[in-house]
């Protein structure tokens, strides 16, 4: 009886409709990135769809939310296993460098993820879109497979141990580094940022000053306040380090 039910189920199983040329090409591009035969193409189509309206729930944002959590778990587990003699502070700092938006954007750019977006017509992409898509892709992989398979794909194809090792001594945020140093040395550190008109007078730029012990030591201008402060902090880092050699304590493996 059970065999009869199995045969009946097998014979009368609904056939999956063939993919369109567009979907087939999209599937092959995803396969080339992740290295396995994807099962549910709809997950990946959602991962690379932009939010064009409030009612458009089938976009990358939900999968980005999931992918962010899955990636955090994968990296935490990897660091715990592969850095057995490192303390919590080192692992936290290294994880921060790995999941930093700037690094995720870079990974997304290397994979050319923005080329896979399904609905870009008339849409201005944010500067963080490649990093957002990177996390959405991980969310889709997780739902399409399982945690262990997703972990193998992430560490084997998307964010390899070699890339992680390269980040150990890399400075991701000069602003954070300056803050850490100033607190340790008990020196006052502040930023003064003002909005200015650009030479073309069509757009505005932000100029940020690094103020150490009440004195402006460097400044920089950029298209956003965040970028201006980071750029000014970078200049302050090199200026102070060249003169006094006091900012050389970059986190090292314990």
What is the third-level CATH name, the topology of the largest domain?
Answer: Ribonuclease iii, N-terminal Endonuclease Domain, Chain A
**Which CATH top level class of the largest domain fits?**
Mainly Alpha
How many helices? The count is: 11
At the fourth level of CATH, the homologous superfamily of the largest domain is Ribonuclease III domain
Order of H and E elements:
HHHHHHHHHHEEEH
Percent helix: 55-70%
Give the tally of structural domains.
2
> What gross morphology would you assign?
flat
**Intertermini distance:** 64 Å
Instruction: Report the biggest beta sheet as strand number plus sense, adding barrel if it closes.
Output: 3 strands, antiparallel
Q: Which spans of ≥5 residues are poorly predicted at pLDDT below 50?
A: 249-254
Q: Judging by the overall fold, what is the CATH architecture of the largest domain?
A: Orthogonal Bundle
Secondary structure class reads: mainly alpha
Arithmetic mean pLDDT: 86
Strand order of the largest sheet: 1-2-3
């Amino acid at each position: 009886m059970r065999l009869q039910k199995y045969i009946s189920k097998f014979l009368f199983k609904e056939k999956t409709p063939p993919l369109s040329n567009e979907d087939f090409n999209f599937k092959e591009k995803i396969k080339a990135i992740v290295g396995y035969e994807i099962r549910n193409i709809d997950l990946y189509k959602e991962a690379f769809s932009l939010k064009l309206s409030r009612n458009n729930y089938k976009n990358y944002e939900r999968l980005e939310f999931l992918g962010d959590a899955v990636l955090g778990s994968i990296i935490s587990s990897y660091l715990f296993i592969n850095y057995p003699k490192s303390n919590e502070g080192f692992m936290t700092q290294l994880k921060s460098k790995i999941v930093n938006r700037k690094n995720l954007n870079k990974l997304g750019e290397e994979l050319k993820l923005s080329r896979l977006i399904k609905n870009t017509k008339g849409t201005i992409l944010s500067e963080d879109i490649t990093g957002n898509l990177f996390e959405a892709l991980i969310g889709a992989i997780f739902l399409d497979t399982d945690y262990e398979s997703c972990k193998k794909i992430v560490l084997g194809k998307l964010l390899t141990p070699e890339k992680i090792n390269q980040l150990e001594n890399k400075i991701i945020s000069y602003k954070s580094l300056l803050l850490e140093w100033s607190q340790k040395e008990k020196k006052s550190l502040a930023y003064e940022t003002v909005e200015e008109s650009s030479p073309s007078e069509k757009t505005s730029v932000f100029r940020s000053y690094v103020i150490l012990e009440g004195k402006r030591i460097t400044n920089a201008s950029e298209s956003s306040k965040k970028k201006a402060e980071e750029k000014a902090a970078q200049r302050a880092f090199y200026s102070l380090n060249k003169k006094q050699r006091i900012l050389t304590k970059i986190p090292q493996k314990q």
